[in-house]
Amino acid sequence: MKANINYLSIACICLGFASACGSKKTVAQAETPPISTKLNCSASNSYTNNVKVLIDMHCAKTCHSASRHADGIDLSTYELLKEEAIKPRFMAAIKHQMLATPMPLKAAKLSDSSIQVIECWIVNGMAN
């Protein structure tokens, strides 16, 4: 009886390893943050009226400016922000999700309402 339990334990462990190996995600898949389906987005959310002030305050006037562009990222214009915002790591970083460097770096996470403004802007097509 004891031998059967040991064999069963070994079989379960092997099965666990085998299933883990078959479901490996690539880095790109692991970094892709799910866009929240429970957003309460306003159609009037635009870069100029809502997003620019947040990005300037927390990103573009500090590390990701035209002159500094930390990690090669410049968020100082609408076009440059739009280019970065379509990348999966952008919202993952702002939301402090796993496998992304939390942004703003060495600062508190943005408020949920600020994150929602940025996420809604992206979901609604990134209006200028």
3D architecture notes:
The structure is a single chain. This protein is mostly helical and 128 residues long. It is 52% helix and 0% strand. It has helices at 2-22, 27-31, 47-60, 78-85, 88-94, 112-123. The protein is globular.
Intertermini distance? 71 Å
- Looking at how many chains there are and whether they match, the oligomeric state comes to single chain
Residue share in β-strands: under 5%
Compute the CA-based radius of gyration: 21 Å
Share in helix: 40-55%
Order of secondary-structure elements: HHHHHH
Shape: globular
- How does the major sheet shape up? none
Number of helices: 6
**Chain-averaged pLDDT:** 78
- Strand element count: 0
How many separate domains?
A: 1
Please describe the topology of this protein:
Layout: H1 2-22, H2 27-31, H3 47-60, H4 78-85, H5 88-94, H6 112-123
Helix pairs in contact: 3-6
Q: Brief description of this entry?
A:
This protein is mainly α and 128 residues long.
Give keywords:
single chain; mainly alpha
